[in-house]
Amino acid sequence: MSFLSIQDIHHTYFTKSTAKTALASISMDIEEGSFISLLGPSGCGKTTLLSIIAGLFNPTQGLITLEGQPVQDVNKHMIGYMLQQDYLFPWKTIEENVTLGLKIQKKNDPKLFSDALSLLAEVGLQGTEKQYPKQLSGGMRQRAALARTLAVNPKVLLLDEPFSALDYQTKLKLEDLVSETLKSFNKTAVLVTHDIGEAIAMSDRIYLFSANPGRIFKVFDMNEELRNMTPFAARNHPSFPTLFQSIWKELESLEYDRQ
Fold first, then answer.
1. What region holds the ABC transporter domain (predicted)?
2. Does residue 141 fall inside a structural domain?
3. Would the N or C end of the chain have less CB density within 10 A of its end CB?
4. Whole-angstrom distance between the N-terminal and C-terminal Cα of the chain?
């Protein structure tokens, strides 16, 4: 049994006058501790699938299970969601933001709070506990958002273009940080991105989607050597340019077919 199983997902958005099918026949099995990316043209349903995995709404057809349970039935804190914006509460300190999930769950164990705050050191934010979000850079706020997401110990992290608003140097540093942190905690991650290089550097497997409706067009498995590297090192591996060009050509063909 797969850790995270996505079985024959179809989804159609209905309005009073139209019906738009966003996803069709999506199936994948994701093993615990793996990192996968969803890549494809705009409008191919990547974020829709992420929202369904998160249990935000039910698919028109199909089933998603986490450890054998439908995602709608699992504790909502078992699936963490990290977005392009950090969504830290500006009136709360970094410490208060990071421990917010524990307070919402009414988990008052001092050890849990101590472990949550230790995550700030893990992501290089020691000493910022009493500061407010406005005092931190964009990259630092995203680190705080990562610590907040991990603090409730989710089984799966859903990452919806979390680095796209950052400058390139900060983005590369955060790719390494997120990758190493998730590996150290053996977390399972699903990343939505438009960045081919990011997908190659961070992933064990890439699912390339076609659009109208969104379907799995092709699957790329990263070789073991790439998977064991940091994202920054993976970008400098000899196989990286070949993989990049291969995925680029497939994406171009998908874009051409849409015209």
1. 4-236
2. no
3. C
4. 40
Q: Is residue 97 domain-resident?
A: no
Q: CA-CA distance, 158 to 231, in Å (whole number)?
A: 18
Give the angle 57-62-64 at the CA atoms, nearest 5°.
Answer: 65
pLDDT of residue 118: 87
- Report pLDDT for 77: 78
Report the candidate in 122, 110, 43, 107 with the shortest Cα–Cα distance to residue 75.
107
Q: Which domain holds residue 236?
A: 4-87+156-258
Q: How far apart are CA 227 and CA 56, in angstroms?
A: 30
pLDDT value at position 204? 96
Alpha-carbon distance values, 63 to 11, 28, 67, 171, 179 (Å) = 11, 11, 13, 34, 28
Q: Please list the alpha-helical segments (H only) found in 82-239.
A: 94-98, 100-104, 110-122, 138-151, 168-184, 196-202, 224-227, 231-234
Q: Quote the CA–CA distance of 224 and 168 in Å, as a whole number.
A: 26
Residues whose CB is less than 8 angstroms from the CB of residue 106 and which lie 6 or more positions away in sequence, other chains included: none
Q: What is the CATH number of the domain that holds 181?
A: 3.40.50.300
pLDDT < 50: residue spans in the chain: none
Rounded Cα distance, 117 and 120, in Å: 5
87 in helix, strand or coil? coil
Q: Among candidates 49, 62, 58, which has minimal Cα distance to 23? A: 49
Say what the pTM is: 0.91
pLDDT tens digits, 222-239:
999 999 999 999 999 999
The C-alpha atoms of residue 215 and residue 195 are separated, in whole angstroms, by 19
- Confirm whether 74 is domain-assigned: yes
Residue with tokens 């164990």: 109
